[in-house]
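// run 5 | inverse folding | seed 20
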């Protein structure tokens, strides 16, 4: 745990007692604060009481006595409308912050020579893989590394800071909206495409939330920005105009004052180092994973890892579950679990990685559905559609061969049979381009259902890949 100082003897309202809320309460209490907890869920309140926390109905509390409101990232700060706790906090002049801001303040309170390094990663897609990949590279290079945040362990539940350690933190746009002083030594923005627009009041608000990862960085901080989309270009231009230290990752070489890693044909063109052939890295297929590798490489180098050690880390990365993960083989057919692809842009990365695939897609559609994937339909041998979006996706696919399977087991069985019938090396690809909530609690459960259906066919299990 990371104790949070600065609120000794003061009452702090904590709303939302999921993973980040309870962890924040524990960290505040360890730092000497007096957290007051509330959640709409009775079971969550009972758990907090069982841990000895003060639980108080914040709808009728005296807000003038609070030093801050620690808000769950799941509760809206501004859109579609502010959560009721936000209104009460603002009326009482109480600042509204989140767990990432508490982490930032805990780090800043340490003497300068005792502060660990912090790398933060955000972006619409790729942030979890980049986070895990960088953590792996640093560990292989002998660094003391703690990985968490929006991936795995809540940031305040990570081990207490020690000099020489590195925190690699995934941060969401919801978490960034609740920060003011978060100043990572290396901040990474992988890419931006439309997502969570209801929570940010549109694309402009969403981009602004992502860009907050750079807002408090000092002159020594490094901003790593993906510029394969116009929004990333705009963010990076503003940083350069402000005189910030930037580096960029792109699929196209530019003439620019900032350092740039160029992704080309499965390799990274690194200034001063030549090319890094990623075709040897079995867990990093596709252009999107090359982008993730570029960010991990650049961040590792900025933290003092040698070129050779960084490349070795990329090559040995075992991969993440539910992200372009090969789960099994049956004859000449490979089964790829990309359940994390909850929007069209993420599915684009997977579809682009294969010349042909038997595509399992569907779920609860996001805005725009699969409209933006039309140029990739020729790569789809046949699509097998599941969930609420099956009908709309079928209509959008038009003449592209497809069938409505409805559920995962039926889709996997039909796709496997169709792929095997060609007699070729084939890929059955789960990359849903939709949220999971119509049939599953989260994308992990959906991915595990895919894995189970594949193994039930008698496929030989694979490791992450």
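// decoded
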């Amino acid at each position: 745990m990371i104790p949070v100082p600065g609120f000794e003897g003061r009452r702090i309202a904590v709303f939302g007692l999921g993973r980040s809320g309870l962890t924040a309460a524990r960290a505040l209490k360890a730092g000497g604060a007096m957290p007051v907890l509330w959640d709409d869920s009775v079971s969550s309140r009972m758990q907090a009481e069982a841990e000895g926390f003060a639980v108080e109905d914040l709808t009728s509390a005296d807000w003038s006595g609070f030093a801050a409101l620690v808000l769950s990232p799941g509760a809206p700060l501004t859109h579609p409308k502010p959560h009721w706790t936000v209104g009460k906090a603002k009326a009482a002049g109480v600042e509204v912050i989140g767990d990432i801001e508490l982490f930032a303040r805990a780090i800043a309170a340490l003497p300068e020579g005792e502060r660990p390094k912090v790398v933060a990663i955000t972006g619409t897609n790729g942030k979890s893989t980049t986070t895990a990949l960088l953590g792996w590279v640093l560990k292989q290079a002998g660094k003391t590394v703690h990985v968490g945040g929006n991936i795995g362990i809540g940031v305040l539940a990570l081990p207490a800071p020690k000099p020489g350690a590195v925190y690699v933190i995934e941060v969401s746009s919801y978490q960034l909206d609740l920060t003011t002083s978060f100043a990572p030594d290396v901040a990474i923005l992988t890419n931006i495409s439309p997502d969570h627009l209801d929570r940010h009041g549109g694309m402009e608000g969403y981009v602004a939330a992502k860009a907050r990862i750079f807002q408090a960085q000092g002159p020594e901080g490094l901003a790593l920005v993906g510029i394969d989309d116009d929004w990333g270009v705009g963010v990076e231009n503003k940083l350069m105009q402000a005189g910030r230290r930037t580096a960029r990752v792109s699929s196209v070489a530019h003439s620019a004052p900032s350092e740039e890693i160029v992704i080309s044909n499965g390799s990274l063109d690194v200034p001063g180092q030549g090319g890094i052939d990623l075709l040897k890295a079995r867990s990093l297929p596709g252009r999107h994973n090359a982008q993730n590798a570029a960010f991990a490489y650049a961040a590792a180098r900025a933290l003092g890892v040698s070129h050779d050690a960084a490349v070795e880390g990329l090559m040995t990365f075992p991969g993440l579950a539910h992200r372009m993960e090969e789960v099994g083989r049956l004859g000449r057919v490979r089964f790829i679990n990309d359940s994390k692809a909850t929007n069209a842009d993420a599915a684009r990365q997977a579809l682009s990685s294969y010349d042909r695939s038997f595509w399992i897609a569907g779920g609860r559609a996001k805005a725009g559905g699969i409209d933006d994937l039309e140029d990739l339909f020729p790569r789809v041998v046949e699509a097998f559609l599941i969930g609420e979006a099956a009908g709309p996706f079928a209509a959008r696919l038009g003449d592209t061969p497809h069938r409505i399977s409805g559920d995962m087991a039926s889709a996997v069985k039909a796709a496997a049979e169709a792929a095997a019938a060609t007699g070729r090396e084939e890929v059955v690809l789960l990359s849903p381009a939709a949220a999971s909530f119509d049939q599953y609690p989260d994308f992990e459960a959906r991915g595990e259902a895919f894995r189970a259906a594949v193994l039930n066919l008698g496929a030989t299990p694979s490791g992450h890949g």
